[in-house]
Amino acid sequence: MSGVVRLALELNPHQVLTERGLFHEIELPPRRERRRDWVAVENGELVGHAQAGFEWAVPTPGKGRLWLSVADEHRGRGVGSELFDVAVAYLRAEGAWRVESFVPGDPAGAGFLTKRGFAQTGRNRVSGLDVPQASAPEMNVPGFRLATLGETRDRAHELHAICVEGEIDMPSDEPETEVDFESWCREEFDYPDVSDEGSFVVLDGDRPVSLAFVAVDPERALGYNSMTCTLRSHRRRGLALLGTGGRARAPRDRERRGQRRHARDQRPARLRAPLCRGVLRPFRGETPSRLARVAPAR
Question: What fold is seen in the domain 2-125+287-294?
Answer without folding.
Answer: Aminopeptidase (3.40.630)
